[in-house]
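User: As part of a screening pipeline, I want to sanity-check one entry by hand. Below is the sequence and the SMILES for magnesium ion. Please return the complex as structure tokens so I can compare it with the automated output.
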Amino acid sequence: MDQTASDALEAPFVQAFEQGNAGRQAIAAGSPPLLSITGLTVVVAGQPETRLLDAVQFELRKGEFFALVGESGSGKSVLCSTIMGVASSELKCLGDIHIEGRPLAEIDRRLRAMIYQQPSLYLNPVRNIGFQLRETVQMIGGLSKKEASERAADLLCDVGIDDPKETMRKYPHEMSGGMNQRVMIAMALAMKPKLLIADEPTSALDVTTQKQILDLLERLRSDMAILFVTHDLGVALQRSDRIGVLYAGQLVEIGRADLVARTPLHPYTRALFSAVPPLSRHPRRLHSPAGTLPEPTQRQAGCNFASRCSGTLDICRHIAPVLQGTPQQVVACHNLEP
Ligand SMILES: Nc1ncnc2c1ncn2[C@@H]1O[C@H](COP(=O)(O)OP(=O)(O)O)[C@@H](O)[C@H]1O
Ligand SMILES: [Mg+2]
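Assistant: Here is the complex for your manual check:
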């Protein structure tokens, strides 16, 4: 990107970041990570060359809102389901995932919860909301039916539903997408999770409902870490503390949201952030640079972006770059400008 374009981006991006949440300061720098992922590689069983994730590495701290962006097919959902421990059985995971210092296999499943783009697919269509929420609450707490009903109603109030008793009588098909997403969040909260994984939870919602759900997540974040997958760069910038950019299974850049947007270091991140006006009224859908994402079966040794990059060096085709940089921003690229 030339200097003029970069200058043009700077002011509105900083403004968008500053308009964002106030919770950013609350994260205790230097506190031990809540989630720690090292060298996470996911392959299709029996096809070791088919890498869906390749040496993914990052940490999240309590109170942090981390946005994960990357075009469709880059492995965001595979990453989410792997952290949740619900990845499909034909996938093989190598590397380490720790929560509060303990390996995933040893920790209580309920420490993490996930919400999805289409909550109606995950809610039971033939049970009313009250039944489903009560069931979740009882699974956790050993409460009586009456106590579980009261807890369920409280949870619905917590997620901004004004008439919890009435809502509990309804079935998912009688509710809007936004209301069902609130119910999913209430179910997630019933688990008292320390890590909330949100895989494009607002992509199917209208702008007003999207904002309400984002505001809700923001109120919740002080008690947990949030891994938020989004296609909307404006949402990532306004709401997150840090942004991670996933490209073809490789995390190519991670950094403080304003830095990633204002001074992106990876050529792919630069292409993403230069392609969209940051403060437009419309959702800033992820706009990909020319070329196509290599399929998992076609990924070669080296940097997966090499085939689309204008600055490819010989080394890029043979050796995958590792993340390096400052505590505020790291990038995996062999061809960094001085
Ligand atoms: N169970 C699976 N077996 C084989 N390939 C898979 C499986 N699940 C996902 N993939 C492939 O992994 C890649 C990443 O998928 P996904 O994580 O859903 O992408 P994203 O969420 O970033 O759009 C895609 O190419 C997808 O086809
Ligand atoms: Mg996905």
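Points to compare against the pipeline: The chain is about 35% helix and 20% strand. The pocket of adenosine-5'-diphosphate (ligand 1) is lined by residues 44, 52, 70, 72-78, 88, 90-91, 296 (CB under 6 Å).
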